[in-house]
């Protein structure tokens, strides 16, 4: 039976350079203190999240003394919460995490408590539990192991050493539907904490110094990201909530400006026209006197008359003749509804392609086919969908369109 290799002997002075790769901290000066049982890390903005079964903690680290502008965001699983007595005899309850300690090419797991060490010169204290059998202490010396450099924090290597950390994600949605549940499932499967927040129950504290979003009587915590799933009927209020998160500095997968523009069909077509994205001939007018003019701008019938604020195929009418188009337009004007007129693309045959663009790339695409006899391809109108392989031109068009609303 093969015996495990004995680690190479290490000798520590009273202060050493270390790395905490699990936390994305490649260079840190730590004080060695055999009088303390558990190691302690100087941490700010300590905040718990996750479920009771899998509690997590996130925090920030300022690895360089005197450089509070350099912030490393971290997260870890909570393994315990203990009462710890500091060197001055004061006791406090601290969260305990487990992380890998890396010194001179050797690494091993240690327990670390999180606390504010702003009054200390060392950002970390190494306790007895971190000292394995192969480590000896030379109490009168320091920096016996290879010296590291703070310069690493100003290089591209930081992206390479950054670990995958657990995120606290908010899904803004009023509906407990399938797509929202799948977002939660996939996020949690990847170790993130995902919370569904009812958009219309959010309210805001708007001020210059401390803007906040509140929910159900409490201030919402800091989220790493917000995924908006704003229904069309609450677009104005939902966009205001997203703008508040943007003001706070929270990353929003889709910004308020893009959502608002996409919900206004006229504005959306103007944005795409400016980006030189191909689309059916489109016309818009306010005066009833221009009904014949906008029909002629679009071309010959059949044509489409479409409400500006409509979803799921509602408010979309196919006019087979000029007289039918005039009747539909007059009816919409009678309802004081804004609409646009488009040429009918017969070759589409009730089909269209939807693409999901994330990070400037098409990650999924599907072809929607309308119900028999229906020119609309909406699934809510009985249409069907299947995955489809798109062409290079279609992919480039989807990316350009998404970028135009970014």
Structural summary, described in words:
There is one protein chain. The protein has 406 residues and is α+β, with helices and mostly antiparallel strands. It has 4 domains: 10-161, Acid Proteases (Cathepsin D, subunit A, domain 1), CATH 2.40.70.10; 168-262, Rossmann fold (3-Layer(aba) Sandwich), CATH 3.40.50.20; 277-344, ATP-grasp fold, A domain (Dna Ligase, domain 1, 2-Layer Sandwich), CATH 3.30.1490; 348-404, 2-Layer Sandwich (D-amino Acid Aminotransferase, Chain A, domain 1). It has helices spanning 157-161, 178-189, 235-248, 256-263, 265-274, 291-298, 322-334, 392-404; strands at residues 10-12, 15-20, 25-32, 39-42, 44-50, 55-61, 72-85, 91-103, 106-115, 124-126, 135-137, 168-172, 193-197, 202-205, 212-215, 218-219, 225-228, 251-252, 282-283, 303-307, 316-319, 339-343, 351-358, 361-369, 384-387. The strands form 6 sheets. Strands 2-3-10-4-9-8-7-6-5 form a 9-stranded mixed sheet, with no helix packed on it. The protein has a 4-stranded parallel sheet with strand order 13-12-17-18, sandwiched between helices. It has a 4-stranded antiparallel sheet with strand order 19-22-20-21, with helices on both faces. A hairpin with a 5-residue loop joins strand 7 (72-85) and strand 8. Helix 3 packs antiparallel against helix 4. It is elongated. The mean pLDDT is 87.
